[in-house]
């Protein structure tokens, strides 16, 4: 268990160093592993968001549900802009906090789907941290397949259930 945590820490440190080294090009891109498994990486971290980040009204009209491909935990490019704006808001408001709720469709075992939901939430968390949010502002939780957005047994239903929901905490 300890070796696994050390490995994760080293991988995260190397990823951060790599992203920092690539920051002059405007984007960075990484892909999943070559053995067919998904490593939960973030792709295409962009520069600048055009959002002042000064108030909650700045983020009120942004997308708060981010969808994933089957059996993947890679943040889709369609959500980059809104996630960058959420991160800018968090960076500008250190007391703001957000919960990232990871979900999966009904296929797979309960245990696998809980882990997949967690990987998805952590991928969104990493994306937001790379774009300025603090780790202390972000909480991740996984519901796996337990809270479907859409009931049904078709790809149309399943695609709506593979998601991370971003919810701001009011205290």
Describe this structure in words.
By secondary structure, the chain is of the alpha+beta class. The protein has a single domain (2-169), classed as 60s Ribosomal Protein L30, Chain: A. It contains five helices and four strands; from the N terminus they run ααβαβαβαβ. The protein has helices at residues 2-21, 56-59, 80-92, 110-130, 155-161; strands at residues 65-67, 97-103, 138-144, 163-169. Strands 1-4-2-3 form a four-stranded mixed beta sheet. Helix 3 (80-92) packs across helix 4. The longest helix has 21 residues, at 110-130. Residues 22-37 and 41-52 have low confidence and may be disordered.
Task: Please provide the count of β strands.
Answer: 4
Proportion of helical residues: 25-40%
Low-confidence stretches: 22-37, 41-52
Q: For the CA atoms, what is the radius of gyration? A: 16 Å
What can be said about this structure in brief?
The protein is an alpha+beta fold and 171 residues long.
Could you name the key traits of this structure?
single chain, 171 residues, alpha+beta, 60s Ribosomal Protein L30, Chain: A, 5 helices, 4 strands
Layout of SSEs?
Blueprint: H1 2-21, H2 56-59, E1 65-67, H3 80-92, E2 97-103, H4 110-130, E3 138-144, H5 155-161, E4 163-169
Parallel strand pairs: 2-3
Antiparallel strand pairs: 1-4, 2-4
Helix pairs in contact: 3-4
